[in-house]
Amino acid sequence: MAPQQAELILTLLGMATLLPLASAFIMIILTRRVMFKAAGWFATAVMAGSFVCALVSLVTWLGVPEADRRGLSLLKSIPWIPIPSTEAGHLYLGILVDNLTIAMMAMVTLISLLVHLYSIGYMNGDKRYNRFFAYLSLFTFSMLGIVISNSIMQMFVFWELVGLTSYLLIGFWFEKRGPQLACKKAFVMNRIGDAGFLIGFGILFYQLGGKLLLPAAGGASGMVEGQVVTMFDAIKTLIEQDGHSITNPPLWLTAAGIGLFFGAIGKSAQFPLHTWLPDAMEGPTPVSSIVHSATMVAAGVYLTGRIYPILTPAAHVFVAVIGLITLVIAACMALVMTDIKRVLAYSTLSQLGYMILGLGAGAYAFALFHLVTHAFFKCCLFQCSGSVINAAHHEQDMRQYGGLGKKLPVTMACYLVCTLAIAGASIPWTEFGISGFYSKDGIIAGTVSYGHALHDTFGAAANLFWLAPTVVAYITVFYMARSFALTFLGKPRNQKLFDHAHEAPWTMCVPQIVLAAMAILTAPFLMGFWQSLIVASEPQVAWIQGADHLAHGHAMHTTHVYLLNGLAWIIMLAAGIILYIPGMKFSSKIAAIPGINLLYTWAYNKFYFDALYDTFVVGLGKLISMIAAVFDKYIVDGIVNLVGLLGKAAAFLIGAFDIHLIDGSVNAAAAAAHSSGGLLRATHAGRVRGYVLIFFASAVLVVLAVVTTVMVFGA
Amino acid sequence: MDMPSLLNWMIYVPMIFGGLCLLAPSGEWAKRLALAGSIVTLVMSIVLLCNYSFDQGGVQFESSLVWIEAINVHYRTGLDGLSLPLVLLTTALSVLVVAAGWKIDKAAKAYNALYMLLLTGMLGVFLALDMFLFYVFFEISLLPMYFLIGIWGGPRKEYAAIKFFLYTLAGSICLLIVMLGLFLYTPNIDGANGKQLWTIVSSSELSLQSAAVRAVFGNGGLHEVFGKWAFWLTLIAFLIKLPAVPFHTWLPDAHVEAPTPISMVLAGVLLKMGGYAMMRITWPLFPDAAATFWVAVATIGVVSIIYGALCAIAQTDWKKMVAYSSVSHMGYVTLGLAVLTRTGFDGAYFQMIAHGITSAMMFFLVGVVYDRAHHRDLNRFGGLWLTWPGYSGWAMVGFFAGMGLPGLCGFIGEIMVLLGTFEAAANFEHQVGLVYTFGILAASGVVLTAGYILWMFQRVYMGLPKPEYESFEPVRGREYAIMAVLGIAAFVFGIVPVLIFNITDSTFESLTNMLRDGLGVLSVSGS
Question: According to the model, what pLDDT value does residue A222 have?
Answer without folding.
Answer: 45
